[in-house]
């Protein structure tokens, strides 16, 4: 997926703050509903129990009077105070109708308060709200120390109206509580979460517009929660991206400068090569001894100039592998470094006799030369070289089908920063002004051979181990070559 295929979100939609406010109100209202349902059921039961208590009091007055001694008007007032249409007591086998205001029609439902109605209280309350208007209910309850039970017939309309009034009050209080709670939660979350997230979003957008501007990197607030972790990780990521862009810019500028130097340097080396060819005609023995090495060095320098930009511009050419005597390559490296037997820097070549490896000799020379030059520069960084202290050793041995080469020195070693970015260009250098390309190029050439390069831990100074495996033998191709020979 390309960058152009990713479209930004549409503006004008409900933002994070709006979603937070809406969800807060919704959840608070939901909690109020969950509180309201048992509350309305409890209100209904309390209302009925209050009617029963008033009915018990009225029953005491009616039951204590001689039969027929209570006037009808008084009986109606007692029933009206209870809110009932009829009142009866059952004692033993006898069932007495104490008072009646109107002859009730058929009773629609029975409410027995002698039973535990906790499980069905919510369903009964909802039924009263939906169907209680004009409905007659028979209420049965115990009468301690007076009779077996008491019965009253009531119209649920009054109960339903009281429940509706209670519901309206609860709804109004719930709305006020919801608004207040939502406002408090919204303000708290807006300050704790929404604003920091909005700030992170604005920082990411601003940094994406100009990642080369270091002032647009997010400022870490120092918070210890998840927002603080997100700020820290975002700042670290933006810093890495900024540094990489700076590095790529420096690499591009370096490539342009080197390309200009490369053009003129090749012409100068070509002229030097023409003049060195004339040295071959001089009869002096010393000249005859040094001229081939000088010509070979100039040829190698010209080849290096032609491939100087290969690291930044493209990959190195594939290695032209053949059986190569490691001792000859090590000797060329010693001569290129200018290390003489009695020089200020000691040199030891400890290569197994007759050791050959399946490698490109020019690339192997560049690998060992870069490592050796780094060692020489490490010696020079701490003052004048001392032959009793400064020493370079290149060893080689074979382990089965793998050639193992070690380049070690007695220098100060690599600091922690250089170890962390050892084979990265412009990162692994320990020398002021160094580019760090030596180890990066060496690692790339070793990998092109299918090998590996690593720093050996625990060694004095710095020791790099290089392993170069032999190529698998193509038996059919080998047989064809032998047949053609």
UniProtKB/TrEMBL annotation:
Residues 260-472 form the Histidine kinase domain. The lineage of its organism: Bacteria, Pseudomonadati, Pseudomonadota, Alphaproteobacteria, Hyphomicrobiales. Residues 191-246 form the HAMP domain. One of its GO terms (cellular component) is plasma membrane. This is histidine kinase. It comes from Methylopila jiangsuensis. Keywords: Kinase, Membrane, Phosphoprotein, Transferase, Transmembrane, Transmembrane helix, Two-component regulatory system. It holds the Pfam family HATPase_c. InterPro entries: HAMP_dom, HATPase_C_sf, HATPase_dom, His_kinase_dom, Sig_transdc_His_kin-like_C, TCS_sensor_his_kinase.
């Amino acid at each position: 997926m390309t960058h152009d295929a990713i479209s930004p979100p549409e503006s004008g939609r409900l933002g994070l703050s709006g979603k937070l406010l809406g969800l807060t109100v919704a959840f608070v209202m939901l909690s109020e509903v969950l509180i309201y349902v048992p509350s309305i059921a409890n209100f209904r039961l309390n209302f009925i129990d209050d009617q029963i208590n008033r009915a018990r009091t009225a029953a005491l007055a009616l039951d204590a009077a001689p039969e027929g001694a209570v006037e009808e008007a008084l009986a109606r007032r007692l029933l009206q105070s209870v809110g009932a249409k009829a009142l009866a007591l059952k004692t033993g086998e006898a069932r007495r109708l104490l008072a009646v205001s109107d002859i009730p029609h058929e009773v629609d439902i029975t409410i027995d308060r002698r039973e535990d109605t906790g499980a069905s209280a919510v369903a009964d309350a909802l039924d009263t709200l939906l169907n209680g208007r004009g409905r007659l209910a028979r209420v049965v309850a115990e009468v301690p120390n007076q009779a077996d039970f008491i019965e009253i017939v009531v119209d649920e309309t009054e109960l339903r109206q009281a429940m509706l009034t209670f519901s309206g009050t609860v709804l109004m209080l719930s709305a006020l509580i919801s608004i207040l709670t939502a406002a408090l939660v919204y303000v708290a979350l807006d300050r704790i979460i929404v604003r920091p997230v909005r700030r992170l979003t604005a920082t990411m957008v601003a940094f994406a517009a100009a990642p080369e501007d270091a002032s647009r990197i997010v400022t870490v607030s120092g918070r210890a929660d998840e927002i603080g972790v997100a700020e820290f990780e975002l700042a670290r990521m933006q810093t890495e991206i900024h540094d990489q862009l700076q590095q790529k810019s420096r690499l591009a500028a370096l490539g342009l400068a080197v390309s200009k130097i490369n053009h003129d340097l090749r012409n100068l080396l070509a002229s030097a090569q023409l003049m060195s060819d004339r040295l071959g005609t001089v009869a002096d023995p010393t000249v005859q001894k040094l001229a081939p090495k000088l010509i070979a060095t100039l040829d190698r320098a010209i080849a290096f100039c032609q491939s100087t930009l290969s690291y930044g511009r493209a990959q190195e050419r594939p290695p032209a592998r053949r059986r190569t005597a490691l001792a000859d390559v090590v000797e060329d490296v010693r001569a290129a470094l200018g290390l003489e037997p009695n020089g200020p820097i000691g040199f030891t070549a400890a290569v197994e006799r007759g050791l050959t490896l399946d490698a490109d000799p020019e690339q192997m020379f560049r690998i060992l030369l870069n490592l050796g030059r780094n060692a020489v520069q490490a010696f020079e960084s701490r003052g004048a070289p001392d032959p009793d202290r400064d020493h370079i050793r290149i060893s080689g041995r074979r382990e089965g089908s793998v050639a193992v080469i070690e380049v070690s020195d007695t220098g100060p070693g690599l600091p922690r920063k250089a170890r962390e970015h050892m084979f990265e260009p412009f990162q692994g250098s320990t020398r002021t002004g160094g580019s760090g390309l030596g180890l990066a190029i060496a690692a790339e050439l070793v990998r092109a051979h299918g090998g590996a390069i690593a720093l050996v831990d625990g060694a004095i100074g710095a020791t790099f181990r290089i392993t170069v495996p032999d190529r698998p033998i193509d038996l059919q191709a080998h047989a064809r070559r032998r047949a053609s020979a």
